[in-house]
Amino acid sequence: MSSKTQWLSGLYYADFISFYSPTQLCGGGTTKSSSNE
């Protein structure tokens, strides 16, 4: 179950980054400051 949860989490995370990555670059440095990694 742990493996499945991790896999699902990875999928959600990948989708989240895929959606927010371009939004951050095109949006400006507002969200960039919050996500300073």
Secondary structure layout plus pairing:
Blueprint: H1 2-27, H2 30-34
Largest sheet: none
| Mean pLDDT over the full residue set | 69
Quaternary structure classification? single chain
The run of helices and strands is HH
- Give the helix proportion (percent range): over 70%
Structural commentary:
With about 35 residues, this protein is mainly α. It is about 85% helix and about 0% strand. It is built from 2 helices and no strands. The chain has helices at about 1-25, 30-35. The model has no long low-confidence stretch (mean pLDDT about 70).
Provide tags for this entry:
single chain; 37 residues; mainly alpha
Outline:
This protein is mostly helical.
